[in-house]
Input
Amino acid sequence: MTTKRRGMAFFAVLTAGALALSACGGDDDDSGSGSGDTEAPSGSSGGPITVASDTEFTSYNGNSETGNGTWNAFVLNGVQDGFWDYGPQGEIVRNEAFGTYEMTSENPLTVRYTFAEDAVWSDGTAIDCDDLLLEWATQGAGYETAEIGEDGNPVPLFRVPGTTGYDLVAKPTCQPGDKEVEFVYSEPFADWQQVTNTSMLPAHTVAEQAGITPEDLVTAIQNDDLAALAPVAEFWNTGWDMGPGALLDPALIPSSGPYVIDSWEAGQSLTLVANESYYGDAPATDTIVIRFIPQDQQVQALANGEVDVIAPQVNVDLVASLDALGDQVTVIKGDEMTWEHLDFNQTPGAVMADPNLRQAFAMCVPRQQIVDNLIKPANPEAVVMNLREFFPWDPEYDQVVGEAYGGEYDEPDIEGAKALIDAAGLAGTQIRVLRSDPNPRRADTVAAIKASCDQAGFEIVDTPTQDLGAGITDVTSYEVALFAWAGSGVMTSGASLYRTAEGQNPYGYSNPDVDAAWDELVVTTDETRQVELLTEIETNLWDDLFSIPLYAHPGVTAHSPNVEGVQQNAAQTQVSFNLEEWARTS
Amino acid sequence: MLVFIVRRVIVSFFILLAATFVMYLLTANAGNPLGDLQESRAPNREALIEARIRLLNLDTPAPLRYFIWLKGAAGCLVPFAMECDLGQNLQGQDVTALLGVALPQTLQLVIAATVLAMVLGITVGIVTALRQYSSLDYTVTFSAFLFFSLPIFWVAVLLKEYGAIRFNDWLADPSVPIGVAVVLGVISGLFWMIVISGDRTRRLTTFAAAFVASAGALWLLSETRWFEDPGLGIIVIAVTAVGIAFLTTALVAGFTYRNVLYAALASAGIGIVCHFALASVLDDPSGLTIVGLALVTVAVGLGLGYGLGGLQRRQAMQAAVLTGLGTGALLFLDRLLGAWDTYSDQVGGRVIATIGARTPNFDGTFWEQGLDRATHLILPTIAIVLISFATYTRYTRSSMLEVLNQDYVRTARSKGLAERGVIVKHAFRNAMIPITTLMAFDFAGVLSGAVITENVFGWTGLGRLFADSLRAVDPNPVMGFFLIAGTAAVLFNMLADIAYAFLDPRIRLS
Output
């Protein structure tokens, strides 16, 4: 064994010695490696900006059934333009560089779209009526194949996720290459501005892939020539979908926005470079790199300088870890257009069918306390939401709240609630509050409600479910449902929530006034009248206590202090909505 | 033997078939595939739900849906005759394409780590077995259990915080304060004291020597700004290469006959000469050049061993090849470190990465690219090695101890065989038999990815594909993943059984 020990000792000294000797080695190796140096990447505008997205890109066609998703919108925000887009607070922002539109007649509702003269795709082809006509063909024409689907209806030719609004538009008439076209509606439509897609697709590429000329494509649509359109639809439906990293030929994915897709490394990153034939203002930064990073890893990647911009979903830990980074990062706290609310199950025979009990419940819910304890740590500016169809930052909000809601449920009134419950003789009634699971914030919300409402005489029962969708449909499983709606920015989408027997109103709520107001709103294009009708709806919803709105979800965006122009975006359009404005300051 | 193998293949096939069925049902019932849409208020909500029902055949009961999947998957069994259709994910991408991207990522991430864990674990396991109940044994046992019980997501996050973020901050102005050097010196001294053991004087001298050497080296490195532009330098390479020559000789032959040592030393010498001779070739080689050089090294080593080995020709060839490869690895490392300063400039001083497999759009010399890969691999590799290290040390240790107590080892000793021969030839080989099973399991595990590690370090490998798809209740990618992981598990188990039968004749007889 002694020899072994000596051997070990020898190696011990050897390692230590090697370490010591290596001190001399540090400066003799620069001659060799210097020869192949590459310059540090530095564009005219201060190097690339890197932004984190949590899901990989899958399709250039964000308007198709499979391509419709935030992960594609994240990239396409910089690549495809349209007549309008959502602003950071869900408002409509017109894109004048792309083209203009105006309502030329109210009856029949007619909208004239004019493409900018200099608007071109990155391959030089003009952006014109062909492209809009193709969009109408996919969403407004209602083309069907001869095939019958499993649901017994014919399979649509173009597989689109929705046709709302477009199905009211008559076939636009235009010649190939026209820069002007009119949409004529069969009936007035409130959200007429949001009918065209925010990202228009290139008709000439589709035509080429279908083996026809763009003129033939226009003719085929004008003549409803389904045989000619079949190959068009085939390419449109799936031809733009890509496997990871398998970026299509650049000729197939032209750009109408400030950036073109340059390269894509599967699972790692996608690179956008400035579109040289862009007709609008040139983007502030030449290269944007989108890195695919899971949400919970984005903060550390930002801290290590591997990304410059992140916008992960908020939780308290995340905000704390961002705050802990101090001035290494700039944190923007704000809101999301997703709002939390308590819905009452008012089906006949249900406990909450009694308006007095609904009132008692509304009186005991500590709304301000919930916002203070659960939301303010993430968003110090957070307020209790008092409306369902407007967000607190909407310009109409204060005026509508003033008319629709009297402030009676701002602070809990335990005594008042107790009196109502006792009057109904229902002290000790079990109230099951349905919520999704796992969701710590909702668990805490129910706990806060229980602490307050149990004092008034209810017995709140936390009812977590993993399948919220099925849970809500099963109206025997709860008295109150706690969940959130993701606001879409589309005004008429609320119709299916509050009208009698609508798909998203399983609660048995029915109020003829509300029904009538919605029916009118859907076909109202006058903005003042729209607000009036919504005020009427909100007033009724408060009077009937259809539901109790709680708060808008907090949102957070963080970026390196060396980057400017990044904004918190409340809409569902992702942090990349204004990436052409991002610039490096150092 | 053939009957044995055929029987195993058939049984394995049915096991896999049953497993896919169970897995499919579990995935299909793992959650609500429409959950995200049901909370949406988009105007096209109904159409989206309708579309997803159509895409996933949700109106067909899950057990029947399995057969739709099986029909496509059956094509994969007959590679060229039929189309291999594993279906599409929710975004309409082919699962085969997804797997094609995920599999190489996983292999890159996990193979190096697994091999490293095996080599380290087995080495340490043997050493601790030879030094049973020494303080080294206790220390290794303690740390093995400590590492084994650490939650990997936590280790990974800590590694990112200290190994990457703080380390990169430190690199901006790399100096080791004298206090830190002293503390690290003490740790190094304690470490070597435990490893070497012996009587009190011996321990104290070891401690003092290691302390002075380590603390001094750190201080020196800091003073000469070595960390800003690290490298090994010819002296370190030379000394280490000679050390490797001695080590390999000790392992394969011992020092009784000098021929082997001479061959190994000659091999090391040629390697050192190559440091200068190949300077221009190594400035910006291709991967192929490196492989070619490795092959030349092996050939030269074989030649040296053959020429100088004399009676110990076989051992001399082994020692020369191993020494040559070791020296080559040193040269490689030196060049890699040589690219450090230019690489550091290119990534803005953030050398160690927390996320991903590469810096996006990174372009540079072979060495800079290599360094880029290495700096992305280092943290996940450490995380995986820490966790799987424990299994290997413990298994090897107990297996080795068992063998050392066997009669044939005692017989070998009593015949007067040198201790080296007893351990390397008689004990080690037999101790490795149970370890092969463990290795087979581990390689099967490799193919199923490291779900958590991949997630934390942002690698889009198989584990991540599985986790993401399961969260979205997207059965096709999950099944694609399971097909690979399940096949690997079944296959490697079978291979382990067969290997066992080869290694241990007793198995075949029963």
In short: Chain A touches chain B through 101 residues (CB under 8 Å). The first strand of chain A starts at residue 49 and ends at 53.
